[in-house]
Automatic annotation (TrEMBL):
One Pfam family it belongs to: MarR_2
Gene Ontology terms: biological process: response to stress
Lineage summary: Bacteria, Bacillati, Actinomycetota, Actinomycetes, Micrococcales
InterPro entries: HTH_MarR-typ, MarR/SlyA-like, WH-like_DNA-bd_sf, WH_DNA-bd_sf
Organism: Leifsonia shinshuensis
Protein name, entry field: Winged helix-turn-helix transcriptional regulator
C-alpha cells in the first residue's frame, strides 16, 4: 500500500485547510486559557439553539452533520448545567424535544460571546472595513457550500 502524499504547502486549498485548522485549535486553546465556562462545542450548540428556538437534537445533528447520539451526549451536559431546557410550548409529536436556552444559558452564552468577539476583534485590529466585509462574505460563502 502506498502511503498518502502530503499536500503541497503552496496549494491554496491546502493552505485554506491549514488555516481553518489553526482557527479551530486556537479557539479551543483560548477557551482553556481563559477558563471559559463554555467549550467551543457548547458555544456551537447554544448558537444554533438561540438562532433556531424550538429546534430539536435531530435539527442540530443535521445542521452540523453529526450523529444524533453525539449531539444527545453534548446536549446532556448543557441540560445538566441548566443552560438548555425543553420548550414545552414547542414540543410535541415524535420528532423529539424542542429546545430553548434558559436564562442561565443566555447569560453564559452572552458572556462567552463577548469574550470570543473581543478575541476576534483583537486579531482583526487594523483591518479595513472593506477587508472585514470581504472576509465575512468569503466565510459565509464557504460555510454555505454543501458537503457531499
Amino acid at each position: 500500500m502506498t502511503p498518502p502524499t502530503a499536500p503541497d504547502p503552496r496549494d491554496p486549498i491546502a493552505r485554506v485547510q491549514r488555516e481553518l485548522l489553526t482557527v479551530g485549535r486556537r479557539g479551543t486553546a483560548r477557551v482553556r486559557r481563559e477558563d471559559e465556562a463554555l467549550s467551543v462545542v457548547d458555544r456551537s450548540l447554544l448558537t444554533f439553539i438561540q438562532d433556531n428556538p424550538g429546534c430539536r437534537a435531530i435539527d442540530i445533528a443535521t445542521h452540523f452533520q453529526l450523529n444524533r447520539s453525539t449531539v444527545s451526549r453534548q446536549l446532556a451536559g448543557l441540560l445538566e448545567h441548566g443552560y438548555v431546557a425543553a420548550d414545552e410550548e414547542a414540543s410535541g409529536g415524535s420528532r423529539g424535544i424542542a429546545l430553548r436556552l434558559t436564562p442561565a444559558g443566555s447569560r453564559a452564552f452572552d458572556q462567552s460571546t463577548r469574550t470570543v468577539l473581543d478575541s476576534v476583534a483583537r486579531r482583526l485590529e487594523g483591518w479595513s472595513e472593506a477587508d472585514l466585509e470581504a472576509f465575512a462574505r468569503m466565510l459565509e460563502r464557504y460555510n454555505a457550500a454543501p458537503d457531499e
